[in-house]
Amino acid sequence: MQVFHNKSKVIITCNKRLSPYLQDEVTALGYTIERAFATGVELNISLTECIKLNLNLRCASQILYSIKSFKAITPDDLYNEISAIEWEDLIDFTGYFSVTSNVDNPNITTPLFANLKVKDAIVDRLKEKKGIRPNSGSDGNKTVVHLYWKDAEADVFMDTSGETLAKHGYRKIPGKAPMLEALAAGVVYATQWDKKSPFINPMCGSGTLAIEAALIATNRAPGLYRMNYGFMHIMGYNEEEFFAERRILKDQVIKNIDLKIVASDISEDAVEVTRRNAKTAGVDTLIDFEVCDFEATPVPENGKGVVVFNPEYGERLGVHSQLELTYKRMGDFMKKECKGYSGYIFTGNPDLAKKIGLKASKKVEFYNGKLDCRLLEYELYDGSRRLPVNDVQQNDL
C-alpha cells in the first residue's frame, strides 16, 4: 500500500496542442501544476491521487507515476539501475506486465532493445526474489512500466492508465476517419460553448463532437465508461478507492438539463453510428439526429449558439474540386442560417479553407493525428458580409 500514498513526480501526457485544455482540466480538479509543456503537465502527487485524474480527464493520454530517476549512458547502465528497483513490491510475480518507452539515446539503435533491457531487469529481479518468472508481452491491459530515456537522463514510471485515456470508451463503432475523443473534447472546449445554448454539428460523421458536447454539458466523466486501468495492477491497489471515485462521478452527473444538440449527416449509416455511440454514452436522448444534407440542418432561431463542422480535408476522402464547392456551401450556410451563432470549421486543408468565403476571427491550432489542423472561428453577425476574394486569401489561413 505504501507506494500509493507516497508523493512523486507525475507526468500527464496529451496529444500536441491539447496541453492548454488539459491544464484547465487539471487545475479545475484542484491540483497544482508544477510544470506545463507542449505535450502534457507535471505534478507532485501520490499514486492514489492518480486514480481521480484517470477517471476525470478528457484531454489526457497517459498518467505516469515516477518510481526512479537516474543517469544511464549504456544499456548495461540501464539494466543495473532497473534491476535495483524493488519490483517485488510493485508487480505481482504471478501476473503480467508490459513495457513502453520514449527513448532518444545514441547508444540505442531501437527503442525495442531498451524495452527488452527493462523487461530482462524486472524478470531477473523477480526471479531472484520470488523464484518464479512473471509473464510479459505487449498487452497494455495489465501492469505497464514506462521508460523515458533521453541522452544520459532516465526516468522509470508506472503507467497508471494502461490503455490511452484519449479514448473514452463509448465509441464502439468508429465510422470513417473518426476524430479521437480527446481531440473532440479539446475542440468543444476551444469553442467556449456555454453548455446551455444550442450546439449544432452538421456533417457529424460518427458523432464524436456532438457526443463529447453532451458529456461535457451533463458532467459525465470518461471514468463512467471504463473498468480497467493500469493502477489496478500495481501491488497495494485498494479497489475501494476506485469505487469511491466512481460513486462521485455518478453523483455529479446533471440529469435534468434543457439542452439542444443537433447531429446531422447526409449518410444514414453515419447517423445510425452516431445514434448507437450516443446510446452507449447514455446521451442519445439529449441529441436530435437528422439524416440530411448539412444545408438542411435545423438551426434554432434564438440568435445564440455554436455550430461546428468537421468536414473532409481532401487527404483520404472525396475529390478536391467537389470539396471546394462543399467548403463554399458551408460558408454560405453559416452566413445565411446561423446568424448570431459562433461558427467553427475544423480543417487540415488551408487551400480549401480559403473557399469558405468568410473571414476567420480566430484560428486555433490542433493536430489530428500527425496532420496540422486549424479550428477556424467565424462570428456570424446579422448581415455579415462576404469579403473580397483577395482579402479572404490573405487573411483566412
Automatic annotation (TrEMBL):
Q: Cite the Gene3D superfamilies for this sequence.
A: 3.30.2130.30, Vaccinia Virus protein VP39
Q: Which Pfam families match?
A: RlmL_1st, THUMP, UPF0020
Q: Which UniProt keywords apply?
A: Methyltransferase, Transferase
**Domain of life of the organism in this record?**
Bacteria
Q: Which residues form the THUMP domain?
A: 62-160
- Note the CDD domains from the entry: THUMP_AdoMetMT
- The protein here is known as Class I SAM-dependent RNA methyltransferase
